């Protein structure tokens, strides 16, 4: 029968987004976004043979086709034909096998090789030709391939902990560094996803009292050229090459040998085990740049697909607001699609509970600068999958107007660097200056009080004028309070070093910040605890560390601890240990009495925070009225028990601050809390607030002057006078009711 001239064949249905979508038999569609590419080949590795197939359809910048035999375990990659001209931002190079940007697994971990570059580089990975030609040799044998993985996994009725923000205590750690030296983790699991999910580790975290584990990047990464030249690696992992695939090197050797599916399953098992202990998992994600870096970097995926689509350039020149040489372009619909899909994947398929966005200011940039209403930020905040998880912004980058703390939209929380700086100044650098100069007019208590109260000065800046007085779109929990993080000195090193010691990084100690606001307590470096001087300095350092931790955990906002600070971990003065995959960075699990005592103090502080809801107020604090006290208020006092007036707030010589947090109204057994913070160099006799403030029985809850909180005085505070040792925090519970508190008792 002749063909019907009026019949039209049904056109194939184009996929609406990039990625591989197949059934159990490996049949379906594959698509990749590369608007400027002339053609894209899908390359399948079968044994040692690479088979290429041209993607026949192009719709809306997507190159796509139907596929078969894309079953789990299949290794595949992409080759792209298109314009070449690095000066204009074009890097299409068919001899480079590229990863699928949406690939769920990678074939292996690899060091950075010269064959990964689209042009010739020398043995030290340096490019010397200003107008390079495409590299002639093919890199298929060296390449890291994408791998098809299955979605099936036995979650065993996994339930998300769903920890409320006001109950959250974050714990930032590194998958490898936390368990690499852990004596109770089996040797084969140390430094791996399996190790982090081991009962000895999950039990430790639960016992410490933290609720949410925030992991440094676990998405597949590649080292930068300068680290490869130095024989170092990007230990922290802030150099992502695959946004959907977990980093293989953090898996056990058995899982790496078994392949990408086993690596992914090990990650999911880790998450499941942490959830079983009630612990949330938050991932640090890097959507501001990639391992491809700037113009001199390798072509691993996006650069070879369509550099001008994925990276922010100006007439071919890379815009760099990340300090890495290049910046992903958040204005691009394909970049936004990639980021959103990656986030959804980790939530839906890996069950993670949230994200910390590295250099998040970049994600809100367009041609006018940073915008809180940027389409990408709005898309994340309103996405039906993502709006139910924790979203944490690192609210800065290195571009113009890069400091944006307080500017992110609801429901983002933000790392509060002002908390870090002001608390360090009060406890460390201001005290060091006074010790050396004798100048008493340094510091004061105003900034410390602002941070203790939740940093409303920062977090209410974006509130519309139409809001009723005293109302805000945000809550104190949006302030992620921290004193240390992966980046900078550890808590112990803040009290031991004033000068960074980054020589092991290979940059002549030029890297890392010089603004540490630290204090060595009169001796730079470690001391001999067996000498009288060493014992005295060591005790002073430990006391300061306890004061810092108390300030962190008793302040309004969401506290973040850095792994090992609770046991005095040191990095030997290195404040930029991003490339130190060794004992400098790994948590030391050695125990001694002072380490154990510090950990017990942290546990006591976390418990205090949990037991006293007024420390976790959902709204910014109001000035307290002694005739009508409630837990949403605060009052401030000096050592004489009198409420602070304007002149006291403006006095830079003030070293002591008393913060009264009233009890929960109507709650049986609830107590008022008086938190006394002293940066004085001498012991002060602090009188409890007088009438009309609460006059109920007072008792000690905490004194950071003590190495062991079991040594706290028992019984009522005698004469309502509290001796507060130099550089310490004392917490007093005052019974509700009685003179000055009768109205609350009757409420």
Characterization of this structure:
- Helix content is 23%, strand content 19%.
- Residues 5-10 and 741-747 have low confidence and may be disordered.
- Helix 10 (417-437) packs antiparallel against helix 11.
- The strands form nine sheets. Strands 11-12-15-18-21-22-23-24 form an eight-stranded parallel barrel. A six-stranded mixed β-sheet has the order 25-26-27-28-32-30, with helices on one face.
- The chain is built from 17 helices and 32 strands.
- The protein has 747 residues and is of the alpha/beta class.
- It is elongated and about 85 Å long.
- A hairpin with a 2-residue loop joins strand 5 and strand 6 (62-67).
Which descriptors apply to this entry?
747 residues, six-stranded mixed β-sheet, eight-stranded parallel barrel, alpha/beta, 23% helix
Measured by DSSP, the beta-strand proportion falls in 15-25%
Mean pLDDT: 95
Largest sheet: spatial strand order: 11-12-15-18-21-22-23-24
Low-confidence blocks of residues: 5-10, 741-747
Radius of gyration: 28 Å
Largest β-sheet summary: 8 strands, parallel, barrel
* Counted beta strands: 32
The helix content is 10-25%
Structural class: alpha/beta
How many helical stretches? 17
Shape: elongated
Distance between the termini: 93 Å
């Amino acid at each position: 029968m002749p063909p019907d001239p009026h019949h039209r064949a049904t056109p194939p249905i184009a996929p609406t987004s990039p990625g591989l979508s197949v059934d159990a038999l490996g049949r379906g569609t594959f698509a990749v976004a590369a608007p400027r590419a002339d053609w894209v080949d899908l390359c399948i590795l079968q044994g040692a043979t690479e088979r290429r197939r041209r993607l026949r359809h192009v719709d809306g910048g997507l190159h796509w086709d139907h596929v078969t035999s894309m079953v789990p375990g299949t290794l595949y990659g992409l080759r792209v034909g298109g314009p070449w001209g690095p000066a204009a931002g074009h890097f299409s190079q068919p001899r480079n096998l590229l990863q699928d940007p949406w690939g769920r697994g990678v074939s292996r971990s690899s060091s950075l090789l010269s064959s990964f570059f689209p042009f010739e580089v020398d043995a030290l990975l340096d490019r010397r030709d200003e107008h390079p030609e495409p590299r002639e040799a093919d890199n298929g044998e060296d390449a890291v391939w994408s791998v098809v993985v299955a979605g099936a996994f036995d979650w065993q009725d996994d339930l998300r902990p769903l920890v409320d923000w006001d109950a959250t205590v974050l714990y930032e750690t590194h998958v490898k560094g936390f368990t690499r030296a852990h004596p109770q983790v089996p040797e084969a699991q140390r430094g791996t996803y399996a190790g982090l999910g081991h009962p000895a580790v999950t039990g430790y975290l639960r016992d410490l009292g933290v609720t949410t584990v925030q992991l440094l990047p676990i998405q597949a990464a590649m080292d930068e050229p300068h680290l490869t030249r130095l024989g170092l690696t990007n230990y922290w992992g802030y150099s992502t090459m695959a946004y959907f695939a977990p980093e293989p090197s953090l898996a056990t050797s058995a899982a790496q040998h078994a392949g990408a599916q086993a690596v992914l399953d090990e990650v999911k098992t880790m998450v499941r085990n942490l959830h079983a202990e009630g612990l949330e998992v938050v991932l640090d994600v890097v959507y501001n740049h990639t391992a491809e870096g700037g113009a001199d970097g390798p072509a691993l995926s996006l650069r070879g697909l369509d550099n001008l689509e994925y990276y922010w350039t100006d007439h071919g020149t890379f815009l760099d607001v990340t300090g890495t040489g290049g910046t992903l372009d958040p204005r691009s619909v394909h970049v936004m699609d990639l980021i959103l899909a990656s986030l959804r994947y980790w939530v839906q398929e890996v069950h993670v509970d949230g994200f910390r966005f590295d250099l998040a200011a970049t994600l809100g940039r367009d041609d006018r600068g940073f915008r809180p209403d940027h389409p990408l930020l709005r898309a994340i905040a309103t996405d039906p999958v993502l709006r139910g998880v924790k979203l944490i912004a690192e609210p800065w980058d290195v571009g113009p107007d890069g400091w944006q703390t307080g500017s992110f939209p609801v429901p983002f929380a933000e790392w509060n660097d002002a908390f870090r700086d002001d608390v360090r100044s009060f406890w460390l650098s201001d005290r060091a200056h006074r010790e050396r100069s004798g100048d008493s007019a340094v510091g004061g208590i105003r900034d410390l009080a602002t941070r203790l109260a939740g940093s409303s000065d920062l977090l209410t800046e974006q509130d519309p004028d139409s809001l009723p007085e005293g109302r805000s779109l945000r809550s104190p929990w949006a302030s992620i309070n921290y004193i240390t993080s992966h980046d900078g000195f550890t808590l112990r090193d803040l009290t031991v070093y004033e000068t960074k010691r980054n020589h092991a990084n290979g940059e002549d100690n030029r890297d890392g910040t010089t603004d540490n606001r630290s204090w060595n307590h009169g001796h730079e470096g470690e001391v001999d605890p067996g000498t009288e001087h060493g014992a005295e300095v060591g005790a002073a350092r430990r006391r300061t560390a306890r004061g810092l931790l108390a300030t962190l955990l008793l302040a309004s906002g969401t506290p973040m601890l850095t792994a090992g600070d609770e046991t005095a971990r040191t990095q030997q003065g290195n404040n930029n240990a991003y490339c130190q995959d060794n004992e400098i960075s790994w948590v030391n699990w050695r125990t001694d009495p002072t380490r154990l005592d510090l950990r017990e103090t942290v546990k006591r502080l976390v418990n205090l925070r949990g037991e006293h809801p007024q420390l976790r107020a959902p709204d910014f604090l109001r000035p307290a009225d002694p005739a009508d006290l409630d837990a949403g208020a605060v009052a401030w006092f000096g050592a004489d028990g009198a409420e602070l007036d304007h002149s006291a707030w403006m006095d830079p010589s003030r070293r002591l601050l008393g913060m009264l947090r009233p009890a929960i109204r109507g709650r049986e057994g609830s107590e008022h809390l008086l938190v006394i913070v002293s940066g004085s160099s001498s012991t002060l006799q602090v009188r409890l607030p007088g009438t009309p403030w609460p006059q109920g029985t007072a008792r000690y809850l905490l004194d950071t002057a003590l190495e062991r909180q079991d040594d706290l005085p028992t019984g009522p505070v005698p004469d309502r006078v509290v001796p507060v040792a130099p550089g310490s925090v004392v917490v007093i519970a005052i019974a509700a009711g009685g003179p000055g508190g009768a109205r609350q008792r009757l409420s």
